[in-house]
Specification:
The chain is of the alpha+beta class. It has 2 helices and 4 strands. About 15% of the residues lie in helices and about 20% in strands. The strands form 2 sheets. It has a two-stranded antiparallel sheet. The protein starts with a strand and ends with a strand. The structure holds iron/sulfur cluster (2 copies). The site of one iron/sulfur cluster has 15 residues, from helix 2.
Length: about 70
């Protein structure tokens, strides 16, 4: 299974990764905020990840790492 690592505290909350995930398994945290005071991207269902790495490619700040 691919492993997706999100550096929550580096996330600026732009939501681009959420918009490109073909499996719709990324979302922005609702109540929780990171050290920047931003809602951050989080994984909802790791088992459905296909390891396409679209999320990692889209992230402007290289916050997401995908290992296949
Ligand atoms: S690797 Fe692909 S399927 Fe997995 S979370 Fe990222 S965009 Fe979604
Ligand atoms: S694309 Fe990067 S900075 Fe934007 S919400 Fe996703 S992880 Fe955060």
């Amino acid at each position: 299974m691919p492993k997706v690592t999100i550096d929550s505290n580096a996330c600026k909350g732009c939501g681009l990764c959420v918009s490109v995930c073909p499996k719709k398994i990324l979302r922005m945290s609702e109540e929780k905020m990171n050290k920047k005071g931003m809602h951050y991207a989080e994984m909802t269902d790791e088992e459905k990840c296909i390891g396409c790495a679209f999320c990692a490619m889209m992230c402007p700040d290289c916050v997401i790492r995908v290992e296949r």
